[in-house]
Design brief:
Number of strands: 0
Structural class: mainly alpha
């Protein structure tokens, strides 16, 4: 399961940076391996508990052995479904797959009452909210960059002013998240304190970045191509941040059911809160990294260039929006799909570009009435987001949970039939 996550989901984090030519493939894989592992090991615990215990009520299972077989069926069905989907080229969510698997096994073992429908409702809502939120945040950042930097007469002066601010926002968000989640094993930090830490660190990074951007911008021509240079390093850093957040959130898909099985085997207790052994988290972190190393490059190229054309500014908006959304979701303990968030952010950028291009065309037409106007067919051809990809992805998202649940239920029935 961890191999599948590395092969499929990590492409969403590194695809924008590689598609915008800010990172080489080797550099992207190296950064992703380090930060995915760090995110999983440092802050990966909360969502693991939601996967293992939040979706089904363990006490409804009756005994520890039934619970363990249900978790095993969930893990197997999720891994098989993601493998099958990858083989046929369908972009599915590993989070959907494992949540559907846990739900299906719970229903097969103890009926519909075993499922915590309140938790499932929250998770389902987050699957709808997260891509929309990711798309909106990405579109807002791109609108900000276009109005404050790209459309300014002196683009370099505008970039010197605003690029450090954008880097500071990213650093502040990351610092708040790490204070809330990563340090809680050492010291308990409440939300206002964590936000204050984020503001302080974001401000410091903003101050440090000002002279760096000023120096980097010396001698650059006043055109859009020069802006791509200035956004290169922030894009790499934001991709690393997204990998860290993804490791924290998605390691649960692989090790949540495993952690539950290990606890049941060692103590016989399957109703208490999950305690996650370090070696279980290491398996998840290593599996994700190894899956990325083996199968990542092809999918990274697909995400980076197939949906809409990305440059460093657009890719930065995607990475930053996706990172902020994943961070909020992980902080709330919701196993949202990083696939949904990242793809939602890419679509947000693409649809904003379409809207902005249409708006600028209307404005130009008003000032020059005799300007060439494209016919409906040509305007359709010039769309900046590929509609076929949009419909395929939505269809794959809808079918995954019921398919994984059905597969899991069948596997659970077969396992219990064989082991008696």
């Amino acid at each position: 399961m961890a191999l599948n996550i590395g092969a499929n989901d990590v492409a969403n984090n590194m695809g924008p940076a590689v598609g915008a030519n800010a990172l080489s493939m080797g550099g992207a894989i190296a950064i992703a391996v380090v930060f995915e592992s760090a995110g999983a090991l440092i802050v990966g615990g909360d969502v693991v508990s939601t996967i293992a215990k939040g979706i089904i009520a363990p006490e409804s299972m009756g005994d520890a052995q039934t619970f363990m077989w249900a978790m095993m069926a969930a893990l197997l069905s999720a891994a098989l479904w993601v493998n099958l989907a990858t083989w046929v080229g369908a972009p599915v969510s590993t989070t959907h797959s494992v949540v559907g698997g846990v739900m299906g096994a719970g229903i097969a073992s103890a009926g519909l009452a075993a499922v915590s429908w309140g938790t499932m409702g929250k998770i389902a809502a987050s699957w709808v909210i997260s891509p929309v939120l990711g798309g909106l945040i990405a579109a807002l950042f791109l609108a900000f960059i276009k109005t404050r930097i790209i459309y300014q007469d002196d683009k370099i002066a505008a970039a010197r002013k605003w690029v450090p601010v954008l880097v500071g926002i990213m650093a502040g968000a990351f610092a708040s998240y790490l204070a809330l989640k990563g340090l809680k094993k050492i010291i308990k930090i409440d939300l206002p304190t964590a936000l204050l830490i984020g503001v302080v660190i974001g401000g410091l990074i903003w101050l440090v970045t000002i002279p760096l951007i000023r120096k980097q911008s010396e001698g650059l021509e006043n055109r859009n191509k020069s802006l791509k240079v200035l956004f290169g390093i922030p894009l790499v850093v934001s991709a690393a941040l997204l990998s860290f957040a993804h490791g924290a959130n998605d390691v649960a898909n692989a090790v949540g059911p495993l952690a539950a099985i290990v606890q049941s085997l060692e103590s016989g207790n399957f109703t208490d809160a999950i305690s996650i052994p370090t070696w279980v988290m290491v398996i998840g972190a290593f599996g994700i990294s190894f899956g990325l190393f083996l199968f990542g490059p092809k999918l990274i190229r697909m995400v980076g260039s197939k949906i809409t054309k990305l440059n460093p500014m657009r890719a930065y908006c995607v990475a930053l929006a996706a990172a902020i959304t994943v961070i909020v979701a992980s902080w709330l303990g919701l196993p949202v799909s990083s696939t949904h968030i990242a793809v939602g952010a890419v679509f947000g950028v693409g649809f904003f570009r379409e809207w902005d291009a249409e708006r600028r065309l209307k404005k130009a037409r008003q000032s020059v009435p005799d300007r060439l106007v494209y016919g409906p067919e040509e305007r359709r051809r010039r769309k900046l987001v590929r509609r076929s990809h949009f419909m395929t992805i939505i269809a794959a998202w809808i079918v995954t949970v019921p398919s994984a649940a059905l597969l899991s239920g069948v596997i659970f029935v077969l396992i219990t039939a064989f082991v008696g």
